[in-house]
Each structure stands twice: as C-alpha cells, then as structure tokens.
UniProtKB/TrEMBL annotation:
Alphabetic keyword roster: Photosynthesis, Photosystem II
GO cellular component, one term: photosystem II
Record PANTHER family: PHOTOSYSTEM II STABILITY/ASSEMBLY FACTOR HCF136, CHLOROPLASTIC (PTHR47199), PHOTOSYSTEM II STABILITY_ASSEMBLY FACTOR HCF136, CHLOROPLASTIC (PTHR47199:SF2)
Residue ranges annotated for the Photosynthesis system II assembly factor Ycf48/Hcf136-like domain, each copy included: 31-109
Coiled coil: none
GO BP annotation list: photosynthesis
Source organism per UniProt: Faecalibacter rhinopitheci
Descriptive protein name: Photosynthesis system II assembly factor Ycf48/Hcf136-like domain-containing protein
Length: 339
C-alpha cells in the first residue's frame, strides 16, 4: 500500500491519502456507495463489483452471473445487503441483490436501440429510485423511476413533479463518468447535462427551472457530476472537458437555493485544477473534487483549493460519518483520504 502524508496550510491537522487497492488493473471503477461507515461497494467494467466491510482493508470481488461483460457505471445501497447496480447499454440492465452480493437478479432490462443509462439516485427518505439516461427520442431525457419497495415495476417518465421533461438542445446528453448527474428529494429533482450544451434542469412542485452553464465549444465538455447538501443548502457542479484533463475552464459551479426557490450561483476566488468528474460534500464549507487531473480539497466553501494528489479518479464519496472519503478510478485504483 502506498501512503502519502500531507498538511494543508489552512488546516490545523493533517489528512492522509492512501491507495487501498489495485487488484484489478484492467477494470475502470465509476460506481461507489456506502452501506455503513465501514462497509462500501464499488462497481466498474468487466462485470466487476467489489465489497469491503472493514473500511477498505480487504475486498471481496463479485461478478454477477445473470449478465456477462457489463460495465456497471453506478451502484446504490437501498438497505442492509440490498443493492442495485446499473449496466449501461446494449442492452441496459439494472440488477439487484438482497443478500449482500452473493446472488443477483435482473429487475430491469432494455434492449431498445440507442439505450444508454448514465446514473441512478436513491431518495431513501421517500423510497424512490431515479435513473437518468441519454435521449432515445429527440430532446427527451430517458428517465426511469421505481419504488425501493418494488423494483419489478419501473416507469418511463415524461414528467417529474408534474413538470414535463425535455432538453433545450437536441444534441445534449449526460456523462456517465461518476453516476452523479442526478439528485432528488421530496421538493425537487435536478439533472445536469453536457455535450452540445450544458444545462441544469430543476423540477419542483411549483414549476420547472432551466439554468444554462458556460462550457467550451467541444462536445466532450460540460458538467459531469453534482452534489447537493440539503441540510446546509449548498451544492456543487463539476466538469470541464475530459479530453483536456489539465484545462480548468468551466470546471466548477457552486449554488444554493434562495428564499424565492431559485438557484443562486456563488462565485469562487480560485478553482480546482483541471477536469473534474466527481464531487462530495463533507460539511457546509468542506468539499472534495476528483477527476483525471487529480483530487482537490477546499475548507472554505470552494473559494480556495489545495491539491491532495495528482492521481486520477472518477468518483469520490464521503463516508456516512464524514471521517474519510473513498475514491475510485481507472486501472483498478481505489483510494482513501482520512480526515
């Protein structure tokens, strides 16, 4: 295990970054979810799912036999030993296990031409699963929903919270880079796009909202990931151009929801380095972002950033107790930052 120690000058204590695992060097991980402070699961290419119950010291590797050679771009925890994972395309699948990964079954299958599922979000409080996919019909995002109590019944949605769903630009789509371009709670659903344009779509019980985001002209650019902390009313969007990993242009947006139920964007003084695909919020002012360009950390609400490592990662997620962040990436790399 490689171990690097570093001190951020703005903190009175050190963080430690370590590489936990590189067993599967031919696998790209993008899915990541916590069951508890010590149990988390990862998912990736080549039908690979990994589970640890000791905070990442050891992993059990799982390959569901009900499908073959899938790229599991996202994975979510519904309850103890109850997980779902997303096989993105050709055909697209959603699999479920209720015994901690020992056995899996198909709960959704789509063989439709052009199907490509990008991300899932579980609203555990309201017992609902949301899935976002690239448009099959022009200008209409592919949105699936189901109850966490019955995953045999999925609905293709033309509306969210009674607001019609459509894309501003017919060449928009969604990046399946970190499983984090959708968020939902009882009051809202937010999805964020990239490609020809990058837009944040917010659906509420009081109406739909559209926020157009700046990006470069490249169709490989836009927002890739999103995190929103409803308790502290703070959200972040991260992205850039994944073909230009060291370009920091348009790689971060911070927002809150104001008293008029509109998104208010908040300027940063500095920006993290390079393209970012994942973001996780630890507290009102502490946030971690990751991407091909490395991992960066802010303790002042995203105004200033310190680099933790130049190692490339696709997805990052804080543990339920907020004591550490797990990172997953290409070449079988799983990392950890202790706080």
């Amino acid at each position: 295990m490689k171990l690097l120690f570093f001190l951020l000058s703005t903190l009175s204590f050190a963080q430690t970054y370590s590489i936990l695992n590189e067993d599967n060097k031919d696998v790209s991980y993008r899915g990541l979810a916590f069951e508890s402070a010590t149990t988390f699961i990862v998912s990736g290419s080549k039908n690979t799912i990994g589970k640890t119950t000791d905070g990442g010291k050891t992993f059990k590797w799982i390959s569901p036999t009900v499908v073959q050679n899938r790229d599991f771009r996202d994975i979510e925890v519904l309850s103890k030993d109850n997980y779902i994972t997303l096989g993105i395309d050709a055909p697209a699948y959603i699999l479920q296990t209720i015994d901690g990964g020992k056995n899996w079954k198909k709960v959704y299958e789509n063989t439709q031409k052009g199907i490509f599922l990008d991300a899932m979000y579980v609203d555990s409080k309201n017992k609902k699963v949301y899935v976002i996919g690239d448009p099959i019909e022009t200008s209409k995002p592919f949105v699936l929903t189901a109850s966490t109590t019955d995953l045999t019944k999925w609905t293709i949605n033309n509306s969210l919270l009674n607001q019609g769903v459509r894309l501003k630009n017919p060449k928009e789509a969604f990046f399946a880079s970190s499983g984090s371009n959708i968020y939902a709670d009882a009051n809202q659903v937010m999805i964020v796009s990239g490609g020809a344009e990058s837009n944040l779509y917010r659906y509420t019980t009081k109406g739909g909202q559209l926020y157009t985001l700046q990006k470069s002209n490249a169709t490989t650019a836009g927002i890739n990931g999103m995190a929103y902390d409803a308790i502290n009313n703070v959200g972040y969007l991260v992205g850039g151009d994944y073909t230009k990993p060291m370009d920091s242009k348009y790689n971060l947006y911070k927002f809150k929801i104001d008293s008029k139920n509109q998104l208010q964007f908040i300027d940063s003084w500095k920006y993290p380095d390079g393209y970012k695909s994942g973001v996780t919020i630890l507290s009102k002012d502490k946030v971690v972002v990751c991407g091909y360009s490395g991992v960066d950390y802010s303790v002042d609400g995203g105004h200033n950033w310190k680099n933790i490592t130049k190692d490339s990662y696709n997805t990052c997620l804080a543990s339920p107790d907020k004591k550490y962040v797990i990172l997953v990436g290409n070449k079988g790399k799983i990392g950890k930052i202790n706080f």
